[in-house]
Amino acid sequence: MRLAQAFLAMIVLLAGCSGPGQKDTPAGRDGSGWTEVFRDDFTGAAGSALPSGWLHDVGTCYPGCPAPQWGTGEIETMTAAPENVSLDGRGNLAITPLLRDGAWTSGRVETRRSDFRPPPGGALRIEARIQLPRVTEADGAGYWPAFWMLGARLREGYTGWPGVGEIDVVEAVNGRPSVMAALHCGVTPGGPCGEPSGIGSGERPCPTCHGGFHRYGVEITASEIRWYLDDAPILTVAATRVDPATWREATDHGFFLILNVAVGGGLPAAFGGGPTAATASGRPMLVDYVSVTARGSGSS
After folding, report:
1. Coiled coil: which residue ranges (predicted)?
2. H or E element that contains 245
3. What is the pLDDT of residue 299?
4. Which of 53-62, 135-144, 151-160 shows the highest mean pLDDT?
């Protein structure tokens, strides 16, 4: 999603539809051989701090600022303030963008763990149940919520994006009644993955995703990556889509998970621009749970 928009806009491909999410057990806990390796249900009193398995990203870039404005051109400043990131007391993590005195703040959190990868010969599934911010195209210009993953080396100061791999489980922009998913890999611009757009789903219609809970998931194996919306497939990228070296560099390592709501930046600009005077402040993204499960050799 994100770093791709540091440079240019995403190409839009229209397709597909999905139904409403339901509050049930995540995929992978149905006795089908999946083992849960990480989970957070975000239970706690309203206003409680971020659970211990997560880290705050603050400011406008990682330490050393290798990619200003988080590499995307977004205009908010990320904070650890409870008004931007906290539990809502109803079993959700709330990430809330706010406009005060002409400046936007918001929240961006990532897992402490950066070792999420499929076991040898097996599969890894990452899933979250999320309510995207309750905005429309009339009052949501500039909103850019997302759930995504980055290759672990980027946390160590490596600057080789997109080669190190980025998997966008879900993102949405400007209150549009749709969601998107993508893989970013190779080099930019161009390269085997068509960066900066990446290999993506394009817009998938989902008129209830803004203001309703849905389950967003991705399954990773050595041979392909599959994306789901409420268990319905929305994108599959096979390893054969790119050369072996590109696939290996983008996928054969650990990842960390990220949840955030950006304001402005390259992707919103691609769909009509950033925030306006009509953009609503204080519409949170709510996250019911995040679950990581594994299946296959070495998953227990």
Report:
1. none
2. helix 244-251
3. 61
4. 135-144
